[in-house]
Design a protein that fits this description.
Blueprint: H1 6-16, H2 20-25, H3 27-37, E1 40-46, E2 53-59, E3 63-69, H4 74-86, E4 94-98, E5 103-107, H5 121-131, H6 150-164, H7 168-185, E6 192-194, E7 203-205, E8 211-213, E9 219-221, H8 228-232, H9 239-253, H10 257-275, H11 283-302
Antiparallel strand pairs: 1-2, 2-3, 3-5, 4-5, 6-9, 7-8
């Protein structure tokens, strides 16, 4: 019987609400099932900031692995398809999966240190930019699988927030982001398969001294968007730090600093809008989150001056 920490349950509740207990009730049954199918041993719960459940393990078929139990949703299939298309090129390998149970068996990257362990933020910015360019990343979209775009993401959450009502102040920033996105698309029109959530926790030190990418959402768009979430994860901070990081990334990824900041604002408005549809235990918790969302969006918007 695997014990799931309360902190993990709380994270899942934000996304699943009253369905959380039903989901967790299936965990041990699925563990038993895939221990047998994939010959797993030495399972250990991995505490992370992700909403999904991760277990380190050894597989008699594939060696050191990570078993990932995902909360249900369209992101599961896009992650699977994305990992299959990259097939280990800069990304971790997907050894096997079962979409009916939302379960993935992944390569375990070793030593696996997150890029956060690089204490100098300038060096983090350089390493991030190098990682997404020197290996020929991102790859060109082959058109074989269906993925969202940043526009479809923004249109989707805008409709949800509009239907919820009372969120005009949040929608102000989302609508601004959609305007800026339209402007960027006039100059950036490559069609590539992007990660969509490429931040510090999703870049792990590998045995060759480089960084391997994990946990993609899978989104089709121009590479101008690929550094956005990384910079967002550096906040809250002084605006000069973000500008300095953008200046370091710019010559490596060949994108002007201001456009890097524009993509960051698009991501800020989008990801913070998503926060508003989460499940909150109290109205006070919702209002507190809303205030945080507005402060973050205002901060990043101010970087565009």
């Amino acid at each position: 019987m695997m014990n799931i920490p309360e902190s993990a349950r709380e994270g899942i509740y934000k996304y699943m609400g009253d369905k959380t207990d039903e989901f967790l009730s299936q965990v041990n049954k699925r563990l038993e099932k895939y221990i047998d199918i994939w010959q797993l041993s030495n399972l250990s719960f991995m505490p992370t900031n992700t909403v999904n459940l991760l277990f380190s393990c050894e597989s008699g078929l594939y060696g050191s692995c990570v078993l990932k139990m995902c909360i249900p949703g369209p992101e599961v299939s896009t992650e699977i398809n994305c990992l299959r298309e990259y097939d280990g090129k800069g990304y971790c390998k997907l050894w096997d999966y079962d979409l009916t149970d939302d379960v993935l068996l992944l390569e375990q990257v070793k030593p696996g240190n997150q890029i956060w362990l690089v204490t100098d933020y300038c060096e983090r910015a350089r390493l991030m930019a190098v990682t997404v360019t020197v290996k020929g990343l991102p790859i060109v979209y082959n058109g074989q699988e269906q993925y969202p775009t940043y526009l479809s993401w923004m249109e989707g959450i805008r409709q949800i927030l509009t239907d919820m009502g009372g969120l005009d102040d949040v929608l102000f920033y989302l609508n601004k982001a959609m305007e800026i996105y339209a402007e960027l698309k006039q100059r950036y029109s490559r069609v590539c398969l992007l990660h969509g959530d490429l931040h510090q926790e999703n870049m792990l030190l590998n045995s060759k001294g480089g960084y391997t990418i994990i946990d993609p959402k899978g989104v089709v768009d121009d590479p101008v968007m690929e550094t956005a979430r990384f910079l967002m994860n550096e906040t809250p901070c002084d605006g000069n730090k973000i500008r300095e990081m953008a200046a370091i990334m710019s010559p490596v990824i060949d994108i002007p600093e201001q456009d890097i900041l524009r993509s960051m604002f698009i991501d800020a408005a989008l990801s913070n809008s998503w926060c508003m549809e989460e499940h909150f235990i109290t109205r006070e918790a919702f209002e507190k989150e809303k205030q945080s969302v507005l402060e973050t969006c205002q901060f990043v918007y101010g970087l565009l001056d």
